[in-house]
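With this grant's support, we have paired protein sequences with backbone structure tokens. One protein thus recorded is set out beneath this paragraph:

_____
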Amino acid sequence: MYTPAATQVHLDEAVRATPFVQTGIAYGCDYNPEQWGPEVWAEDVLLMQQAGVDLVAINIFGWSALEPRAGEYDFTLLDTIIDLLHSHGIRVNLGTGTSSPPPWLTTAHPEILPQVEDGTTRYSGGRQAWCPSSPVFRAHALRLVERVAERYGAHPAVVLWHVSNELGCHNALCYCDDTAGAFRRWLEARYGTIAALNTAWGTSFWSQRYGAWEEIHTPRLTLSSRNPGQALDFHRFSSDELLGYYRAEEAVIRRHSRVPVTTNFMVTAHIRNLDYWSWASDVDVVANDHYLDHRLDDPTTELAFSADLSRGLADGGGWLLMEQATSAVNWQPLNRAKAPGEMTRNSLSHVARGAEAICFFQWRASQQGSEKFHSALVPHAGTDTVLWKEVVELGATLTRLREVVGTRVVADTAILFSWEAWWAADNESRPSKAVTYLEQVHAAYTALHRLGVTVDIVSPDADLTGYRLVVVPALYLTTDEQADNLAAFVAAGGHTLVTFYSGIVDEDDRVRLGGYPGAFRDLLGISVEEFVPLSPDQAVRLDAFGADAFGADAFGADAFGADATGTLWTERLRLASAEAIASYADGTLVGVPAITRNRHGSGAAWYLATAPDHTTYRDLLRVIAREARVTATGPENDGLLEVIRRVGDDRSFVFIINHGVSDTVVATADGIDIVTGDAVTGTVLVPAGAVRVIREETAS
């Protein structure tokens, strides 16, 4: 049995971690042995070996087991489990155990409980019942982290540290007095003076001018809409506050361990409160949790978007899928079971887009608790099941894919994505509640996805060198530097499509005067006088254009369909240097340009002033992609076929994922299908619901 060394080195906080070493695609899960007895543990590790599971996250919710009473610690169970896993060759992703405080702590210190925006308190009995700004919570949590890190910092089984769990999933925005004090300190550090804050928030409106920091509170519910500048800064503060908490745990760990430290991000459609661009450089390896959301029209395409964004956070490199579901979840209105093969397709879609670990919540389905109907690697029905067979088969497939580790996804197209723009665009007072930021981002991504174009998702501050096309959907909040960055990209020969509701305000949510879309007006060669939103049940026809609009040699006669329509949004737009490509054919703005194109330097900047239907969006981006000479990695399709390439110094792989119900033949280079072992020459047959991964032959 492992015993913590009394002479263990006390590391300096500045010591950086060793890299997270990957010799293959890790296959893992969350493991909660405290829910089971020792006889089950022995069975579990043997089944893990059978399935090929080699990375297990433990102690995620271990606080009440490790510290059953204040200051009293019991590591017996955790010692046993870590030693058991290690003896069977299974690596440990060790949680700090701080995700949810034990009942004794919230009973002794109810002041740590979070408050929601109506000022009422949320109590223990669920999870994350703590305020991120509570000094009492932080003191107790860091004391636990110290004991865990001190005990296991040099354990040979521990290859990764897991800070808390899904930070901010439930408690990102707390409105209590502790938070108000922390918010004031953050504001003072940001603005320096009350006068500067008043200018940034526009407090001359509605007699909101502040005279002292003590007058500022969290943006609790009001009788009217709230100050948008205050709401935006509260989101920024809340993200920074939890990042500060992450850094505090990491600093404690680093005193005792050189093992890499991370936490699981939530890059998903229903979580928006943390700006992960500001977090990414703090984690030693990017990790993400993703679950198919069947409340969306196209959950599989959203999975691809999430994976591409996770890769963007990892600066194009490898990242870890820390959680997904083998089948149904437990928290949607209808928790759909995955069809046979769907778990494998979901998993390999993540791998295709850069994931180098495929992990699940959780190992064994719980008998009790809120997540007892959440699927797991070992279902309630046991191992004599279709699901368990697929779990074992997936492990074998991931083993065969070990050689893709270290390769990178190839993309010449990017979408700019901003959490700050999301917060600001979806604030309370806006032109149309029917227009939401993420839906516009997803619409642009879906159009490119169906064209077979692989997409990088990058920050508006990112270096755009090397891209041919950059799409900018609804980037409502845009800084001067971000606008200059895009303009320089186009001037140097790049192509961009900017959509409506972009460039409207600066970083203080202050409208840019002189005509929309302020920050991009010169780049696009247009000026918008007025927004004219449409109701969700309205649509306007766009005039058809094809070869005559662009030149048949460049685009072909089928460039744009006669049934092109716009929804949700129109604008009263004037041309400056741009040319009109399409205009409204009916509605109140007949003849007003709806799509424009402007030469800027050596490149071209397109503008889309409406929300097109899916077909129209795809057709438009097909035209723009051709002009930009974008290279599609796969054929145009209805979204049921994914083709992605990963490339290394001396090897390349093409992932082909068929989500459809029909077999399909895909053109590919000669090579070997490393899923089946079959040779491939020119084309490959991908059966319905199957995945093929082709190791392409390279010239000798």
About this structure: The chain has three domains: 26-176+218-409, 413-628, 641-696. The longest strand covers residues 526-533.
